[in-house]
Each structure stands twice: as structure tokens, then as C-alpha cells.
Design goal:
single chain; 299 residues; alpha/beta; Rossmann fold; N-(1-d-carboxylethyl)-l-norvaline Dehydrogenase, domain 2; 2 domains; three-stranded mixed sheet; 14 helices; 9 strands; 54% helix; 13% strand
């Protein structure tokens, strides 16, 4: 299948690479030309604009950071809409607003193009291994048409409902992810300030009722070794929480803990940690408490 891919960042590049490995022909576009050149070296071809890319492919996949970028890709000048033709399927795997997904779908429908909002979860590791969870909103027939594309990078594919449902599901996941990482950080700072050994505290929490994936990954991979290189960033979780809080406000739902978590991440970003792992949310807390949560020094 001839697949266009727009957005070759931490998630998009390995996703596009897996499409090549699965035998698809890939046409790529990205703001950074260096990433396109890397993918071309693996067998892809390049397109100068989203419109030019759309004109060449059967299926288009996008994976970018912000709602504004998603809107520009599809509806902006030289956007994919300008190159669209009847029978194509366009898939946005970004995390964005359900309302934006529905607006893009409506515009594309006029060209006879099906649109799926299909945000993914699993991080760069899952993207590289082809094990992402994919939450799909849109017509079931369109999903089945492009299932081989999604299976190149996704192990668990869920049809959540009509357009917008994929992002609705992802935002529910993100309020859990964002809030859980903030709570894990608070627990580790409190325990350390009370004189507990951070490594031992982590081991206890792992086998107690507070155990969660945020604890299992953030503490041993980021917090204890003081390694805040980004898998998913503070900036990224702020954007996702912004989208979730907007959706909640639009639909009369109160989200107290995610709103507080967003404030904590905004504080973290203001201290210069926006492009670090979201576990860096612990650093303002450590500064206030006068402790550093650190694991044993390797021999």
C-alpha cells in the first residue's frame, strides 16, 4: 500500500520505519528535512508539502504535537485537503481535540475522503517495537481498509466509535498518566523527606496498593538515576491536559486533579524543564522540600 507519513518526531519516525519494514511504500513530509532524509535512506520518498504528499498516496498518516499543527497539515495552505481525492483514508495519530477531528473529517468528507482520529499510546519504545495501542474514531469500513497500515505499528487496535472517539479515549488515558506521574513524584519526595531510602520505598510501593505503571517506569528509569531525557515531555503532557480540560469544559465535566496536575507541570516548565521527561515534575517538589530523590550510586 502507498502510505504518506507526516511528522517524523520521536513517535513518527519509528512508526514510519515500521511501515517500510512491513512492505508499504512510504512518502514522507516533515518540517525538519533531516528526518525526511533519514527515512529516505531507509527506502521512503519525499514530498514537499502535505498537499503534494496527499496527491501521491492511498493512505495518509500524521503524527505531530499540537492541535495547531494538525489543523495546518489538513486544512492549511498546501494542506492535505488540497491534494485529496475520492477513496483515500487519512489517519491522524496525534493527540488533539475531538472537536478538531470532527471538523477535519467534515472538510475531507466533501472530497470523498474518510478520516480516522487514531491517537496512539506506548511511547517511543512502543513505536519502535510496533506494539502501540491505537484508539480509533471513525467509520468501521475505513478502519478495516487501513488495518494493515495500523498493524505495522500497533498491536492493540480499538474501534472506539465515530470520529472524535479516538481522541476522547486518549484524553481519558492522558489525565490518568499526567495525574499519576505527579502523585508518584509527591509520594517519593515525601518518603525521602521523612528519611526513607528512595530505592527501598520504591520496592515497597511496587508491591503495595499504590502500584501503577507511572511508578514502575518513572521511578527506576528517570527519577532514581536522575535521567530526565525525554520519552514523553513536560510540554507534551501540558498540551494533552489542555485538550482534556477543554473537552471537559465543553461538556460540563469537572476535572479537579488533572487541573492541579497541569499547574504542577506548568511550574516545572517555568523552571526550564519543559523538554524533559514528564517525571521531571518531581524537581520543583524536591526544591521546596530540600531533598533529592536519588537511587544508590553504581559501584
Amino acid at each position: 500500500m502507498r502510505v504518506g507519513f507526516i511528522g517524523l518526531g520521536r513517535m513518527g519516525f519509528p512508526m514510519a520505519s515500521n511501515l517500510l519494514k512491513a512492505g508499504h511504500q512510504v512518502v514522507a513530509h516533515n518540517r525538519s528535512q533531516a528526518s525526511v532524509e533519514r527515512l529516505v535512506a531507509l527506502g521512503a520518498t519525499a514530498a514537499s508539502t502535505p498537499a503534494a504528499l496527499a496527491a501521491e498516496v492511498d493512505v495518509l498518516v500524521s503524527c505531530v504535537m499540537t492541535p495547531a499543527q494538525v489543523e495546518q497539515i489538513y486544512l492549511g495552505a498546501d494542506g492535505a485537503l488540497a491534494g485529496a481525492r475520492h477513496g483515500q483514508v487519512f489517519i491522524d495519530t496525534s493527540t488533539t481535540n475531538p472537536e478538531l477531528s470532527r471538523r477535519i473529517a467534515s472538510a475531507l468528507a466533501g472530497q470523498g475522503v474518510a478520516f480516522l482520529d487514531a491517537p496512539v499510546s506506548g511511547g517511543p519504545r512502543g513505536a519502535e517495537q510496533g506494539t502501540l495501542a491505537v484508539m480509533v474514531g471513525g467509520e468501521a469500513t475505513a478502519l478495516e481498509q487501513v488495518r494493515p497500515v495500523l498493524e505495522a505499528f500497533g498491536r492493540n487496535i480499538f474501534h472506539m466509535g465515530p470520529v472524535g472517539a479516538g481522541n476522547s479515549a486518549k484524553l481519558c488515558n492522558q489525565i490518568l498518566t499526567g495525574t499519576a506521574h505527579a502523585l508518584v513524584a509527591e509520594a517519593m519526595v515525601l518518603g525521602t523527606r521523612l528519611g526513607l531510602d528512595p530505592q527501598t520505598l520504591f520496592e515497597v510501593l511496587q508491591v503495595s496498593s499504590g502500584q501503577c505503571r507511572a511508578l514502575d517506569r518513572a521511578v527506576p528509569e528517570a527519577i532514581l538515576p536522575r535521567n530526565f531525557s525525554a520519552a514523553f515531555t513536560v510540554d507534551g503532557i501540558i498540551k494533552d491536559l489542555d485538550c482534556a480540560l477543554r473537552a471537559a469544559d465543553d461538556n460540563g465535566v469537572r476535572l479537579l486533579l488533572p487541573a492541579l496536575a497541569r499547574q504542577m507541570y506548568q511550574e516545572c516548565r517555568a523552571l526550564g524543564h519543559g523538554d524533559e521527561h514528564l517525571a521531571a515534575v518531581i524537581q520543583p517538589m524536591e526544591r521546596i522540600a530540600g531533598v533529592e530523590v536519588r537511587g544508590p550510586t553504581p559501584a
